[in-house]
Amino acid sequence: MTSNSDRSAVRGENHTAGNVTFDFTGRTVVVTGAARGIGREIGRAFHASGATVYLVDRDADEVAAAADDLGVRGLAVDVSSTEQVEAAVEQVVAETGHLDVVVNNAGILRDNVLWKLTDADWDQVLGVHVGGTYRFLRAAVPHFRAQRRGRVVNVTSYTGLHGNIGQANYATAKAGIIGMTKTAAKELARFGVTVNAISPNAETRMIASIPETKRAELTAGIPMGRFADPSEMCAAVQFLSSDEAGYITGVVVPVDGGLSM
Q1: Residue 259: count of CB within 10 angstroms of its CB
Q2: How would DSSP label each residue in 120-138?
């Protein structure tokens, strides 16, 4: 017989339950694309684990509200701007004395079939996804090297490996993040820095914007039969950011309910 709690587990209704905890006391964590969704939940988890957390998002009002709600710090930053990213990293280090973890989660959609994509659609998506990841990595590296430690977790996508109709720009960007993750992992390992990625499959505003028929089709392709709650991404990110994961680098961890099998 299946209990009510068992049925809840199958539906994912008890996704916040768990017995794994991490201690990030004294660590400084930056999470991009963090005004909502996955980024916000990752920020929440790190704050609950004792870290000093900076939420980064280009929407000044939303990131300020999110930061106030969580009791963390918020920075309005356009991750496609080198000047803004470098200023943000310098501010974080000036205020806390160090930078320990960077989670590159910022992303946007400008979907259309290839022959209808504009240059702006292409440039904006790659500028935020790949450009933002690159800029935060580059800005953080001098501090990581000086500390002889650091953790980077990038957010990529199943689409980056398999493509998706109407998302040539997004798929290219996410594939680029995988290549960047592996290259940076090789370059930075000797400094005690690990660079990894997760490939999530969570209920976000991007998913909510998908037409219902297409959404049902996508859900049917997930072995676990549902999109995850954004909070279900946090344990993987925190593990990859922890001391325990110090010998893991250059990997992409699918947190996708079996989608990538």
Answers
A1: 18
A2: HHHHHHHHHHHHHHHHHHH
Sheet containing 252-255: which strands, arranged edge to edge? 73-76, 52-57, 28-32, 101-104, 150-155, 193-200, 252-255
Active site residue 170: yes
Catalytic residue chosen out of the listed positions 54, 134, 170, 247: 170
User: Angle at Cα 67 formed by Cα 64 and Cα 68, nearest 5°?
Assistant: 85
pLDDT (tens digit per residue) in 90-144:
999 999 999 999 999 999 999 999 999 999 999 999 999 999 999 999 999 999 9
Which residue type occupies 230?
P
pTM of the model: 0.91
